[in-house]
Amino acid sequence: MRGAPVAKDVDSWLARIEPEQRAALEKLRAQILAAAPGAEESISYGMPTFSLHGHLVAFGAFKKHLSFFPMSASLIAKNADAAAFATSTGTMQFQPDKPIPAALVKKMVKARIAENLEVQRERAAAKKAKSAAKKAAAKPRAKK
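Now predict its structure.
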């Protein structure tokens, strides 16, 4: 799909790939959406991407494989079930006839949601601490 204009949405992106790959990725798409109700779909970096409390997961189609991107190398490394697939930093590669099991997709999507929520909590806490420090520094000091 190099050189082609970027697809406007996931349906347009899927329409461009081979039928066998499309069927496997449509199934993966349904599994992702089932595990993350309310996730928004978009095209990011030229690939279908799902967002919920931040970027969640993505998938892609390549000449010799399909990829599921949990966007977390540590999540892949921690998950023994992922070892059954070719992996690389942040991706699990699979074939249309040997998809990633639905239970593993669900587990990884749920873990990514938890990671995103934790990042949001940490950012909120840091923002609150920064605001409190700013307020404390702005208070006039009492003279002795």
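The chain has one domain: 10-138.
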